[in-house]
Amino acid sequence: MVLDTEDWQAASAPGLHLAFRPVHDVITARVFAYEAVLRGPDGEEGDDILARIPADRHAELDRRVAAGAVTRAMEMGLGTTTARLLIPIHAPNAAPAGAALTAATLAGQRTGLIPERMIFGIHGFADVPGQQLADLVDGHARAGALTAFLGLGHDPIGFSPCVRYRPAMVRLDPDLVNGIDASWSRRLMLEELAPRLREQGIRVIADGVSHEGVLRRLRSFGIFHLQGDLVAPPMPGMLPPTRIERPAAAA
Question: In what residue span(s) does the EAL domain sit (predicted)?
Answer without folding.
Answer: 1-248
